[in-house]
Design a protein that fits this description.
Elements: H1 24-46, E1 54-58, H2 64-73, E2 78-83, E3 95-99, E4 112-118, H3 127-136, E5 138-149, E6 156-158, H4 162-181, H5 192-198, E7 202-209, E8 212-213, H6 218-229, H7 231-236, H8 241-251, E9 257-259, E10 263-269
Parallel strand pairs: 1-2, 1-4, 2-3, 4-5
Antiparallel strand pairs: 5-10, 6-9, 7-10, 8-9
This protein binds S-adenosylmethionine (SAM).
Length: about 270
């Protein structure tokens, strides 16, 4: 099985974060699930996924979506969940978990009724080729669902003061810089529909969602967690410890409000 050697700068969240003994990947998966599973599962349900379907969840991370799908397609259907680091996916009777690099490892062709990937392709080199590989893994009539953010984050609406607003905006810009330096494309969500069309998929349907974040919002908790998880890379990008402490205070202020990134959930189907 191949490794990340093919990803020049490497998966940005692969390294340990600055959260002491806590496992930063597990915490990241927890906030991802809390913030985005309601949208992802609503969209998956809209495909008609049900008993008997064969599904693939690529870059399954914490596995909450894989396990939801496994319950949905049971007892006769099944789910294959893949990831470079599959140790967090969890288990279910009809769930097969595989260590797999979607950039370099092969996928079976015409094998799945449904293929899903959330916040994975943005991190990959040659993501258009990967999307083509996912499309070819669909059986005729099968569904591809890609869930991805657009660029960065929306505006800050309410901050404790102008300095706090500036701290937040500089932090967001630094996160985007760190992502790009690792080879990720923070604006990938807005490109998915066109890439699906280029991959020959039909019936392309785009759903976009934004919310207003406050201190308790799971999406903002995820961003707060990112300030720890990417601490070293953010420091290398020029954010001081004082800056990071300030922005963490801003993001936990009860009066803070900011617009989330746009989350796109895009469907396409392989022609029958
Ligand atoms: C931001 S997480 C998203 C996890 C999950 N899809 C979710 O939304 O909760 C990205 C996931 O993609 C995985 N990943 C990164 N590069 C990959 C690759 N080349 N092949 C397979 N998985 C990869 C990471 O290990 C990580 O679990």
């Amino acid at each position: 099985m191949s490794t990340r050697a093919d990803t020049p700068a490497g998966y940005v969240f692969a390294g340990a974060g600055a959260t002491g003994t806590d496992d930063p990947r597990a915490r990241q998966h927890q906030w991802l699930a809390a913030a985005y599973d309601p949208l992802t599962t609503r969209r998956l349900a809209a495909t008609g996924a049900g008993p008997g379907w064969r599904c693939l969840d690529v870059g399954a991370g914490g596995g909450s979506v894989s396990r939801w799908l496994a319950a949905r397609v049971a007892p006769s259907g099944g789910v294959v969940a893949t990831d470079l680091d599959p140790g967090h996916v969890g288990t279910a009777a009809n769930l097969v978990v595989q260590r797999h690099d979607v950039v370099t490892d092969p996928l079976p062709e015409a094998a799945f009724d449904l293929v899903h990937a959330r916040l994975v392709l943005r991190h990959l080199p040659r993501r258009a080729a990967v999307l083509g590989k996912l499309a070819r893994a669909l059986r005729p009539g099968g569904w591809l669902q890609i869930d991805e953010f657009d660029t960065g984050y929306g505006p800050c609406l309410l901050a404790p003061g102008p300095a706090a607003r500036r701290r937040y905006e500089e932090f967001r810009a630094a996160v985007a810089t760190v992502m790009r330096a690792a080879g990720a494309e923070p604006g990938y969500g807005a490109q998915v529909a066109e890439e699906m069309r280029a991959a020959g998929l039909t019936g392309i349907d785009v759903h976009a969602e934004v919310t207003v974040w406050h201190a308790g919002s799971p999406g903002l908790r995820l961003l707060l967690h990112t300030s720890h998880h990417l601490h070293e890379r953010l420091a290398a990008a020029g954010l001081t410890g004082e800056h990071l402490a300030d922005v963490r205070r801003v993001m936990t202020d009860p009066g803070f409000r900011a617009v989330s990134p746009v989350m796109y959930s895009v469907h396409g189907r392989r022609a029958s």
